[in-house]
Amino acid sequence: METEKQEELLKVNNLAISFYNKSGEVQAVRGITYTLHKGEVLGIVGESGSGKSVSSHGILRLTPDTGKVKSGEILFHGKDILKMSKKELQELRGNKIAMIFQDPMTSLDPLFTVEYQLDESLKKHTKLDAQARKKRMIELLNLVGINQPERRVKQYPYEFSGGMRQRVMIAMALSCDPELLIADEPTTALDVTIQAQIVELLKELKDKLGMAIIFITHDLGVVSEICDKIIVMYAGKIVEEGTSRQIFYERKHPYTEGLLASVPKLDTDSSEKLKPIKGNPPDMSCVKPGCAFAPRCGCAMQICVREEAPECELNETHNVSCWQIIKKAMEGQVTANGKE
Ligand SMILES: Nc1ncnc2c1ncn2[C@@H]1O[C@H](COP(=O)(O)OP(=O)(O)OP(=O)(O)O)[C@@H](O)[C@H]1O
């Protein structure tokens, strides 16, 4: 199992995506690099506007026409998705990589039964005949925890609750047996109990099916249970990357600290006060020099407003881009591998 995990599935290399409108360039994603191994779950966290969705939709080349990939590579099994032909891309979408979104109603057609929509998906992505598709549909609905699937498959999306609709969407996404599932804020529209159930379901599915997952969320609390590793994005960049444990217990970036302080913790007294991060994320149409978080950072130094911090490798799995940490590493207060 361990060796299987180490097989590289996706490598995003220095990816930069901008949008162009009348007032100029919006630098949504500014050179991000990360690797996802087979069967691994990666959390991408950050406040609204940090570039989580744009970077992840870019993997399936779903960037809107006003956007442009300025640089980078997106290697899937070593092959650059950005250079794939239309035919290869079609094969990839839905067959190897599937995506689920925040609001299943935008992806499910209210006018058709779940049976019809699942059948269309199976027709598109498999070579199964009508009878085998019917069987597979029931299997899929069972897999995602929908009771009485034979009855419920005949229903329309509006007859399902929000959590159940998300389960139907997950069933549709699984209809092609993807190697990678991109889940873009899949639980945000749901209430807390249902959120936890959907996260639990994704965890079970990952263990059963061995697929890799990219889980996008603004809520660090949601990903603690499911992710092997987490990248923290701010203003289109990765400011910290580490294993789930490192991000929760050994986090170093003040922004990661702020994000954690602003979400309710499941294991502590709920009366503990939440501390939202003061200020707002920067306007990405006029990016200033220096660290983008500096204006909101309680420990910013002069250099932070002048120059962007290079990535500091604390160890094999933990990287952070922050001048404070570089300073501490130089003073011997933080152990780093020496690579900056
Ligand atoms: N179609 C677009 N045209 C212009 N700018 C865009 C477009 N889509 C996204 N952006 C900008 O790109 C930046 C990153 O947006 P993105 O949606 O990736 O953020 P996010 O972290 O996923 O936030 P959210 O959680 O709100 O979806 C933002 O500044 C956003 O305004």
UniProtKB/TrEMBL annotation:
Alphabetical UniProt keywords: ATP-binding, Cell membrane, Membrane, Nucleotide-binding, Transport
Main localization of the protein described in the UniProt heading: membrane
UniProt keyword Acetylation, yes or no: no
GO MF annotation, one: ATP binding
Compartment(s) of residence: Cell membrane
Topology versus the membrane: Peripheral membrane protein
Matches recorded under Pfam families: ABC_tran, oligo_HPY
Ranges for domain ABC transporter: 10-260
NCBIfam families: oligo_HPY (TIGR01727)
Family membership: Belongs to the ABC transporter superfamily.
Protein name from the UniProt record: ABC transporter ATP-binding protein
Classification of source organism: Bacteria, Bacillati, Bacillota, Clostridia, Lachnospirales
